[in-house]
Amino acid sequence: MKIAIIHEWLDSYAGSERVLEQLLACFPEADLYALCDFLPENQRGFLGGKIPTTSFIQRLPLARRMFRNYLQLMPLAVEQFDLQGYDMVLSSSHAVAKGVITGPGTRHVSYVHSPMRYAWDLQHQYLRQAGLTRGLKGLYTRWLLGRMRAWDQMSAARPDVILGNSRYIVERIRKVWRREASVLHPPVDLAGFPLGSGPRGHFLVASRQVPYKRIELVAEAFARMPELKLTIVGDGPAAPLVAAAAAGAPNITIRGRVPQPELVSLLQTARAFVFAAEEDFGIAMVEAQSCGTPLIVYDRGGARDIVDEGRTGLFFDAQTPDAIIAAVRRFVAHEADFTPQACAAQAQQFSIAEFRRKLMEIVAAPSGASGLAP
Question: If 0-12 CB within 10 Å is exposed, 13-18 middle and 19+ buried, where does residue 266 land?
Fold first, then answer.
């Protein structure tokens, strides 16, 4: 088959690029398309030497630094890709990639990381954070997001098969696009997170410190449990808030960013990994389980796909210190029920090999079928 792979934009090696890396590994002869390509040379290795075909956005003024400001042009840009002659199109989409136009003889499978959050359920949060709740600029942005919602819903009819990266995203797809989708969890490189066998003495939070991660809630909870040790790894704009919540608590250690080998060691020696955010999926949770570490996590989003409650972790149902304390106490009372072997085995369903196997099943499935259970 002649295959095209469509990616939104290339400017860093992050979550969606890990999916792209596996698409390219499965189909090394495929042609690659992206709205723009400003990926640094030291991060291009996963492309295998491919030079993507880019859109007119690549050549617009100041695009290297400000290409996201051309959001209103991205639907037009992605529709300009000439995909005639391809048997299969695979799009990796969190904004507009799923909106490419294909002919009746081309099967389009779209892997959706999420519908455009800033245009749908997070619109008001986005406007507040950007200072766009008032004035003419705010009014224009609301109008633009309304246009983007209309195009987003209309173009959602174009893929033949839609895949969501978790059950949570599949539900969002059903809600905003009125399309059915199947779950294909993203690939997680488990080789770098081997099962630990040593003693476990602390609880762990490892995450970029941004407001929605709610790390300060975990710090506040453990400040009220002085007999339990907590290590917090990571940095970011919410670091002062986290430090304030942990101030004066001798059982809480804040490490900032640490090298990868040190992070793995901390995961392998943790009694449990605590996570208070609502994530679309949650790769960090899978990496922790791969190290044999149970999870104590907020009962929303992709965590529901990752945790086997009572065997590899526990949920708490509110983003409050009291809810976290209750879950940690429950974990401590039943800690013997959570074995490192069970946690590591749970993580295997999210491996790179499993992602590739399921993806190949999808490609081989009859036209109109995903090859996976909904």
Answer: buried
Q: Helix (H, G, I), strand (E, B), or coil: what is residue 230?
A: strand
CA-nearest of 234, 258, 259, 264 to 246 is 234
Of 295, 297, 341, the residue nearest 315 (C-alpha): 297
Residue for token pair 């639907």:
75
Tokens read off for 288? 């922790």
The dihedral region occupied by 115, where left means phi > 0, alpha psi between -120 and 50, and beta the remainder, is beta
State if pTM tops 0.70. yes
Strand partners, 111: 92, 163
Reported as a single tens digit per residue, the pLDDT across 102-114 is: 999 999 999 999 9
Q: Are 200 and 273 in contact (CB under 8 A)?
A: no
Instruction: Note whether 97 and 6 are within 8 A (CB).
Output: yes
For residue 27, CA distances in Å to 23, 46, 189, 360, 366 come to: 6, 13, 19, 10, 18
